[in-house]
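User: structure tokens for DUF3098 domain-containing protein, please.
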Amino acid sequence: MKEDTNKSEFLFGKENYKILIIGLVVIALGFILMSGGANENPNVFNEEVFSFRRIRLAPTVVLIGFGITIYSILKKSKSEN
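Assistant: Done. Predicted tokens:
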């Protein structure tokens, strides 16, 4: 009898997917940090738009998240020997 050699395999290893999910969560956290600062009256300028959290911290967190996801894609799985 012929064995079924068409075993479905995932593209990445289990660890790669865990790192990818962590990267996506970090990206989402960065966008959450970037949100807010809405003003009820459009005729009044709100200085909160230029806060440290929205200008420096949130984009840095998003870039770190992108770096983590790229790392998870490029990392070799242990199953690939």
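User: Anything notable?

Assistant: The radius of gyration is 21 Å.
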